[in-house]
Amino acid sequence: MKQFFLSTPIYYVNAKPHLGHAYTNIVADAVTRFHRLCGEDAFLLTGTDEHGDKIAQAAEKQGMSPKDFVDSVSAEFQELLPRLNIANNRLVRTTDDAHKRVVQTFLQKVHDAGDIYFADFGGHYCYGCERFYTEKELENGLCPQHRTTPEFLSEKNYFFRMSKYLPWLAEHIEKNPDFIRPERYRREALAMLESGALEDLCISRPKSRLTWGIELPFDKNYICYVWFDALINYISALSWPDGADYARYWPGEHLVAKDILKPHAVFWPTMLKAAGLPLYNHLNVHGYWLSRATKMSKSLGNVVEPEDLCARYGLDAFRYFLLREMHFGADANFSETAMIGRINSDLSNDLGNLFSRVLSMLAKYYDSRAPEESGKRKADDTAIAQLCAAALQNYVQLFSTMQFALALEALWELVRGLNKYVDSQAPWALFKQGNTARLATIVLVLLTAMRKIALCLWPVMPETAHRMLAQLGQRTQRNSAPVESLEAEITSFEGPAAGTELAPASNLFPRIGVKNLRSP
Ligand code: MSP
């Protein structure tokens, strides 16, 4: 069995999770489920990033100890996972003892190899980013992320000899066009490397300034820079160096948004190289969800809460909308009106209607049992079988390259094609005429294609796919893939066995009235 490993970023616990965090986790879950559906042994990792200045400051503001504070916010992130139906295999916390030990082993290894040195240092420190900026990286003297004036700090610190590996990294990215994808982020990473602004990485903070972190194994007076600590989660969660999961799943894939491209495209591969570990296979980078065309922020009052939307519209409709609306890599604007539009058109009118009309015909004509095939297929029927094979083929190809919006669009060609097929074949007229042989062929073609649609949708809408399959007479386990190999379903077109019991009715996605609309 082929192994597949995917990680999300580990989230800071200084604020509550919002739509952006939910999106990354839903994409990660859908991709992992997709690989399970293709017969792979797929492992999903998520977690929380709990060290550093920002967290220490947030804890102090709440009048809590850092540990009590991170425990409570990490719990909030963890509670959100089942509510979004995220089937992660592990959740890593950077305050776990096991993670701390791995970070120290990694640091010692790089230190022993001579790639960590101690030096005097003066730099522009941004507390928001928790990192030093070089003169060249600042924009008009300001932090390019936060637009604030960084503080100039002068102190002795430990450095990772990152500059030594930058030419090698540029060559690796050049030679492996999908190492960082989509293309725009690969180019952005190359531009960073070519700019000359990158230097060695300061990887320590003196304890006199910050104590909330992992102590350096070679100097008790320093703790590890939060990004160096955080990136190592991807292998500490797999129990590097000796763990069975590390041997089984590494190297894998990462999923992040564009805000954290640099640490993942530059710091992490050079760290892996310095420690003598294999590099990840792909870094998949998505864009930002905007609200009212700007970045979501508490002060603007435009933060979109995932829980609230799920409660009002249903989790699967929400998951579908996020994957259908955002073109992976580009930014997207979140609009509740657009979401209602998609639910009503794609889910209610197209998909829901298909299931509802076909199952109610079967209830009326066949007492909700699959009939026996008794006539030959005609050209219209083979055209549907071909449309089905093409839709599945495209779906698999597009989904496996993270093009979810296009994959779903390809599948909807089949959904719409089936609705048209019902209209043009008019089974109700055949029933009136008593043409039962032809009628049976048509409903069997429909049931066969509808099952394929349900299978394809399992990664995106697991609960709905489970219900759709149950309505079609296929019992499935809630959290395991409904078939062994989706690829094998592309070429086959086998209908249900005669007598299979079907649901008498289906009401998957009731239409939503616009009166439900509230502004975010
Ligand atoms: N702790 C670091 C990551 C360390 S990974 C070794 C961090 N945490 S974060 O809480 O700020 O999470 C950033 C991530 O949250 C983004 O990369 C993205 O996955 C998700 N998003 C946060 N806001 C988002 C949007 N508005 N839109 C889409 N995703 C966003 O950075």
Automatic annotation (TrEMBL):
GO terms for biological process: methionyl-tRNA aminoacylation. Binds 1 zinc ion per subunit. Pfam families: Anticodon_3, tRNA-synt_1e, tRNA-synt_1g. It comes from the Bacteria. It is found in: Cytoplasm. GO terms for cellular component: cytoplasm. Residues 13-123 form the tRNA synthetases class I catalytic domain. Zn(2+) binds at C126, C129, C143, H146. One of its GO terms (molecular function) is metal ion binding. Belongs to the class-I aminoacyl-tRNA synthetase family. MetG type 2A subfamily. Monomer. This is Methionine--tRNA ligase. The lineage of its organism: Bacteria, Pseudomonadati, Thermodesulfobacteriota, Desulfovibrionia, Desulfovibrionales.
